[in-house]
Design a protein that fits this description.
mainly alpha; 2 strands
Length: about 170
């Protein structure tokens, strides 16, 4: 599978709903199974499964960006953010931020998407980082955004967006 920025028509995003239909159906069946399972679990087991799923999503999403999180630490931190008693495992800043983001999403999934909500999520995810400017806001510099991989001394630029003229 290619990244969005690797698509020939990037950044003009389009999709064919019919091509996604089988995957959407598979997702809906899986979601139905999960809802069925949850309805048969007691409160404690339902909480445990929710925490496990939220933590795994945080770990998997972070891995896409090349950041490896400890699943057990993220689980413990998600539980704490949801007010559920857990062990005293210490989470690093990235794990704690990802866990707080997932707990926030879990509690507020009905909230409409807004700039303020996106900025809050970004702030949670960056959790105290000082090496990134403009956390929790849109970028304001004119430098073009780039998708880069490779070593710092030999970066490979895969895509460069047009400059920001805000």
């Amino acid at each position: 599978m290619r990244w969005n920025w690797q698509q020939p028509d990037w950044p003009n995003f389009t999709y064919d709903a019919q091509r996604l239909k089988s995957r959407e159906d598979r997702f809906l069946r899986g979601a139905g199974v999960l809802i069925g399972v949850l309805s048969h679990l007691d409160t404690g087991d339902r909480q445990d499964l929710s925490i496990e799923l939220l933590a795994q999503e945080a770990v998997d999403s972070s891995a896409i960006e090349g950041e490896i999180l400890d699943r057990a630490s993220v689980q413990s931190s998600v539980a704490k953010h949801l007010g559920i008693k857990t062990d005293n495992r210490r989470a690093n800043a990235a794990e704690a931020g990802a866990a707080e983001l997932m707990a926030n999403l879990f509690r507020g999934y009905r909230e409409p998407l807004s700039d303020a909500l996106l900025f809050n999520w970004h702030s949670l995810l960056m959790n105290g980082r000082r090496d990134i400017a403009n956390i929790g806001q849109y970028r304001s510099h004119a430098d073009p955004m780039q998708i880069v991989s490779g070593a710092l001394h030999a970066p490979k630029v895969h895509f460069e967006a047009p400059a920001n003229h805000a």
